Amino acid sequence: MSSKTDAKLGRRGFLKGVAAATGAVPLAPELLVATGVAGAAVVAQSAVAEPAAPNLPAPEAGYQSLGPDEAGFVEAMVNIMCPADSLTPGGVDCGLAVYIDRQLAGGFGKGERLYMNGPWRQGKPQHGYQLPLTPEQFFKAGVAAANDAVQKKFGKDFSDLSPADADAFLHDLADGKVSDARVPLAQWFNELVYPLFVQACFADPIYGGNVGKVFWKVIGYPGLPATHTHDMVDFRGKPFPGAQDPKSIADFS
Amino acid sequence: MATKLKQRTVVICGGGFTAGLIARQLTAKNIDVLVLERGGDRTRGAEARLPNQRDELRWDVRAGLAQDWAVQTYSLRHSRNEDALPIRRLEAFLPGEGMGGAANHWNGQTWRWAEYDPILRTRLETRYGQRAIPPELTVQDWGVTYAELEPYHALWEKLFGIAGKAGNLRGQIQAGGNPFEAPRQDEYPQPPLPATESGLIFAKAAESLGYKPFPMAAGNSPNAYTNPDGMTLGQCQYCGHCERFICEANAKASPEVLLYPMLRKRSGFELKLHTHVTGVDYDKQTKRVRGVRYIDLLTGEEYEQPADIVVLASFVMSNTKYLLMAGIGEPYDPTTGTGVVGKNFCHQTMSGVNVHFKDRLLNPFLAAGSSQTCIDEFNEDNFDHSGLGFFGGGYIYSNVTTGRPINHRLVPPGTPQWGSKWKQANADWYSRSFNIYVHGSWYPHRENYIDLDPTYRDAYGQPLVRMTFDIRDNELRMSEYLTKKAVEIAQATGATVVGTPSPRKGPYDSRVYQTTHVTGGTIMGADPRSSVVSSHLQHWDAQNLFVVGASVYPFNAGYNPTGPLGAIALRLGDDLVRYTERPRQL
After folding, report:
1. Along the 253 residues of chain A, how does pLDDT read in single tens digits?
2. What distance in Å separates the CA atoms of residue A214 and residue A207, rounded to the nearest whole number?
């Protein structure tokens, strides 16, 4: 594991202590402004560099699928894609790496509901996924191939790149500018990695990401239970109070 | 070795929407009905109960209620000179599984098709001349008229408690409804759903352009409702979990709420869950079917189920597959245009444009699957196609059914895909955006069809259904035209940002959801040379075999398919009562 990853894990340990000491701290007031009724211009002005991390519970500790190098890649990646800013803590602290790990370790990663009969041939993009790999296997093959490409270009691992280099490399992946002899890296990033990232941000926190419903608070999604028979008309075009304090599956379990 | 069971009167393959309606008519006359359904009863599972019902990842993103592609999928090629590949995880449409089928996870969007739709070929030839219709556009009439179906529409809407505003009562155009609506004898059973904020914005913009906006008719119940059978719907909670979900409030008109609980109490009705029908036994000499074979998925045992009458009521693709595997009817041959089974396979032509409002709060999560506002000026033949170079069209609407955050966040063009600016854009625009969408027709093309894949097999060792399928010029042009109309409305909303329009482009993409409205393959008509089943849905080559589902539509309209499907299923139920009394070609 890289020193950078160690530093993050150390930070996570620190956050656990904070959470234990303070309990569930509501989102900072400036974020409620950001997610509520204010116009876009006001929101833009409120974007300050103060990280919001201390308000969140710690993500689950430990990985089920990812090995140390893979975890280093994923943690560095989610911290680039979700940097700590006024809206959320960094991706690792939001649980995004844990989410991806749990998905790879679970039914999705093992190829549940995926037709896996051969023969295996490559088609057009519109045919969708055509590799003889489970999503977990594909994910890991892609991490290894992407890391090889980083090594070739920068002489170091992805997790050791500067944030600017790492971000540029991810854009190159998305734009199909990074090639590997055997792994289709653009498809890997755009059709496997990126959807997992988005799900990690916005899925219910029971799956390990979106810790503390942080992303739901950012956008103002009220979550559960959503019994809106009267709200539908009463709050039509008006700020909906529940959007500031979303509820998740765990809150009703 | 299959165990042979005792003879049953009517055996229905597939326990979904149409099977429930047919069985309602038959069991009311004490006729013995056995329904074979591959899935289970989901009404007490996590998918139907709080809190887990509200799990976007499990039921929406992972399509937990849809067909398991590991067991059975379809293959795709865009033209006959290509090799088809299996779609390993299909997103383009979502067949259901379990008691109630795909109608459990529908949005509730309800339409009667246009009065001219059952005679579309005649209509187009009359209006534009025979030569105006390109030979590859294999649109055809149904062999039945809207007037014959109207009473069944009315009955189905009462059974399902449909909420809406009539636009045409017995020929009189009604303010506030759809002026292009086929004439109705009665108002909708329930008042329309309230408009969303986005609907109000859309309506104002549409009116400013001279259009007549109206609320979409809905299978989401605005009030507690008791239908003529005494079955009840709860009140819609506008929770935004309709399509891809089972309604935990029992407020979505669906077979697992309104039909099967009643049927299962009726004597003479039997629903065998977890049974996968593997084939239909056909006697080519006598032109009759003997029954079906199925696997009990709980035990793995095989059974032979003899029946007086067999009804294929499974999803579009499977209905065609059963016929092709049993050799019933002539398979469609695109090289000659002869044969019928697998012909006129269609989907839906969706497109749209996003609108973003700096100073409007839209609360997209306060919505139901059908709480939309629509215009119908540009649907199908509601406008003059002279010189346009295409036929067909669609309704245009404010498409807000949910604010589920994984898949329903709209951001303006130019927003990066990740990073702080991406987050900020989501914070700024999530509650302030919606899309104006076109729900467009898909007319049949001579080269679009389904047959059996020569290479790929399902978990039972049977061939996959192969789609030879692409979006053709007619639909590309239609989508271009309709999307422009949507953009004009978008510009009239006063939106801060109008997004990049997305008219439909080819090739046909298995990765992008359109609608679950695939149609055709076992089309109906008045002529055995050009249809698989008669207008009574009776197979031309097997008198005691009936086929029902969107597979019998000779084309796909610019309207959602559920309404006419309810009507033709109820009509088939009555036809089957007559057939059991006196078996004959109806």
Report:
1. 333 433 333 333 333 333 333 333 333 333 333 333 333 333 333 444 455 445 789 999 999 999 999 999 999 999 999 999 999 999 999 999 999 999 999 999 999 999 999 999 999 999 999 999 999 999 999 999 999 999 999 999 999 999 999 999 999 999 999 999 999 999 999 999 999 999 999 999 999 999 999 999 999 999 998 788 889 999 999 999 999 999 999 999 8
2. 14
Q: Looking at the domain assignment, is residue B75 inside a domain?
A: no
What is the β-pairing status of strands B302-312 and B288-296? antiparallel
Q: How far apart are CA A112 and CA A126, in angstroms?
A: 21
In chain A, residues 152-211 whose CB comes closer than 8 Å to chain B? 167, 170, 174, 191, 194-195, 197-199, 202-204, 206-207
Asked if B151 is an interface residue toward chain A (Cβ–Cβ < 8 A), one would say no
Q: Which residue of B has its CA nearest to A47?
A: B424
Q: For residue B99, how far is the Cα from the chain centroid?
A: 17
Q: Which of B105, B155, B553, B527 is CA-nearest to residue B347?
A: B553
What residues of A are in contact with residue B249 (Cβ under 8 Å)? Answer: 227
Token output for B392: 């067909």
The domain ranges of chain A are: 3-252
Tell me which DSSP letter residue A191 carries.
I
Q: Which residues, given as ranges, of chain B have pLDDT below 50? A: none
What is the model's pLDDT at position A8?
A: 39
**pTM for this predicted structure:** 0.93
C-alpha B97/C-alpha B59 separation (Å) is 13
Eight-class DSSP state of A158: G
Residue B83 lies inside a defined structural domain of this protein: no
Decide if B153 is inside a domain.
Answer: yes
The phi, psi pair for B253, rounded to 5°, reads -65, 105
Q: Give a yes or no: residue B91 inside a domain.
A: no
Calpha distance B203→B423 (Å, rounded): 31
Spatial neighbors of A19 by CB under 8 A, at least 6 apart, are A56, A57, A58
Asked if omega into B213 is within 30° of 0 (cis), the reply is no
Joined tokens for residue A4: 């950078």
CB-CB contact of B349 with B442 (8 Å): yes
Residue B255: CATH number of its domain: 3.50.50.60
B428 residue type, one letter: D
In which domain, by residue range, is B379 found? 3-50+57-64+97-128+135-581
B426 → closest Cβ in A206, A218, A238: A218
* Structural domains counted in chain B: 1
Q: Residue A235: its chain B contacts at CB < 8 A?
A: 363, 366
ipTM: 0.96
